[in-house]
Amino acid sequence: MSPSTHLRASLWSLAGFLAMGMWLEAMLGLRVSSVVDDALRREFLRLGHAHGGLLALVNVGLGWALERLGTPSGWAARVRVAAWSGALIVGLGFVGGGVWHGPTDPGPLVLLVPAGALMLVASLVAVAILRCPSGGSPDQASNNPS
User: Fold this and answer.
1) Where residue 134 falls among pLDDT bands split at 50, 70, 90?
2) Mean pLDDT of the chain
3) CA–CA distance, 56 with 66 (Å, rounded to integer)
4) Model confidence, pTM
5) Would you list the domain boundaries of the chain?
């Protein structure tokens, strides 16, 4: 995944989860019974909206950090895919767990949430520990055309 694709995908994800929050507020304001009367659904839709939006912002920051810290390009491409996928999986796992659920427990899609969270945490740790390939400062590495 290229840096611009990562940034665009993160911004689209942010827009989607924020739009979902607006939709959710409208459903609550209009007292739509499928949302208002189902506490588990309402809670998990809120969790999905909040986590999805926040983790999309984390991806925007991660994209900046990858460039600023001069993460090696092979690692950076893998980190971008894992971080963005992990954030999307967390948000959609919560949403899916709330939409399709049993009487007292969230649906099986909520089981995706820990996997997505681990992908995102691993991505952040990888960026934090990887060093510039040239051994110099990130500014020197970004000026190197290789």
Assistant:
1) low
2) 88
3) 15
4) 0.82
5) 3-131
